């Protein structure tokens, strides 16, 4: 009688052990970035979903995983945990085709990922959350903030347009995790009331990213 | 007659060429991070100062350097420019004692640097700017925002306290650019009305950082 996984026992056991868990929300652009990069890199992830509106990431058992109370968190079987979407992207992509091999290219990647988290996400992702997904009564309390979200979000899109009018990609002259980081919420900016028609180079870049091998839309899960 | 720089001519010329310019504001914690890392790494920088309140970084000639209109920007003699304080820290510290040599340690560095830019700086640095440096009439227009700055800034300090209660440093078990990034605005959080007495591990870490070889305070310039 043959043993299960005959001939592959060690490899199978290893594969079971090393598949990390991505604590995530399916609708979050920050979590989508990680799923997209993992798919293109051939990295397996087990998805563990949390609700967008139920406060699950502010409860004690989740705070033990990330005291900052946010997804995504990548968790390994040995207990190591990594938070912050762009740090996870970096970890997954070191020494792969998604990260430039030269020091200057890597610095450009980080420049755009920090731009994304400081100057883009707080307006474009936040407008999307409140306008598209939050309960109406909660949106009403924040309606006075919409003009600021839109002004600063449009400023970020204008910075992207300036760059993309002269470059196909954000960093290192090639597709990288900098593009993935910025694609995460730019491709669904309309959810937050942003019209991208004024940014033709951004629109062309969105199409380039979506046409790449292994690309998956935000809705895809497993 | 001896030539100037006799015997060292090539080295001196090389040194003159490679010293990059840091476009900066002396009082900015984001710019201070870069100065501090450069001092500890022995990297020479030429400082070019901009006013904190005169809008100089939103004028056309500066926007040609950084379309996002912010300092710091590191500019090289060949025209390459790098924005975002934490991307500059990374660029300066690759393959040095300020960045862990292992992949997981580098990922931890980035986790804390993204935490700093997303969950810490927008409240602790912003409160400092408006409460300490902005004209009184401009502060008055934003006085209703102070409770939010303080609530979210204290949340960030609490996350730091949780980590520092069990670790001496933020990433990789050693002093790194993650510590420099978080030191930048934490050490002057009192300027924004934050009392650090409730975060003893944060206070002890501030002292550890300040006691290291090559440490320079925010005021030091050259």
- Quaternary state of this entry equals homodimer
- Per the CATH scheme, the topology name of the largest domain in chain A is Glutathione S-transferase Yfyf (Class Pi), Chain A, domain 2
CATH architecture call of the largest domain in chain A: Up-down Bundle
Overall pLDDT level of chain A: 93
Q: If strands are numbered along the chain, what order do they take across the biggest sheet of chain A?
A: 2-1-3-4
Backbone shape of chain A: globular
Q: Helicity range of the residues of chain A?
A: 40-55%
Strand content of chain A: 5-15%
DSSP summary, beta strand count of chain A: 4
| Low-confidence residue ranges of chain A | 1-10
The string of secondary-structure elements of chain A, in order, is HEHEHEEHHHHHH
């Amino acid at each position: 009688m043959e043993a299960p996984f005959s001939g592959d026992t060690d490899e199978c056991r290893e594969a079971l052990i090393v598949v990390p868990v991505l604590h995530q929300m399916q609708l979050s652009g920050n979590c989508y970035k990680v799923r997209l990069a993992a798919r293109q890199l051939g990295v397996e992830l087990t998805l563990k979903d949390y609700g967008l509106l139920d406060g699950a990431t502010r409860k004690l058992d989740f705070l033990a995983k990330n005291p900052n109370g946010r997804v995504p968190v990548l968790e390994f079987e040995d207990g190591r945990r990594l938070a912050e979407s762009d740090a996870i992207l970096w970890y997954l992509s070191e020494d792969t085709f998604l990260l430039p091999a030269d020091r200057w290219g890597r610095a450009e990647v980080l420049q755009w990922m920090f731009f994304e988290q400081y100057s883009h996400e707080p307006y474009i992702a936040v407008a999307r959350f409140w306008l598209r997904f939050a309960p109406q009564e909660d949106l009403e309390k924040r309606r006075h903030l919409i003009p600021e979200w839109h002004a600063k979000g449009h400023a970020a899109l204008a910075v992207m347009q300036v760059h993309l009018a002269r470059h196909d990609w954000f960093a290192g002259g090639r597709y990288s995790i900098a593009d993935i980081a910025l694609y995460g919420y730019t491709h669904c900016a309309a959810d937050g009331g942003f019209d991208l028609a004024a940014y033709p180079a951004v629109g062309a870049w969105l199409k380039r990213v979506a046409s790449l091998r292994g690309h998956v839309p935000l809705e895809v899960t497993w």
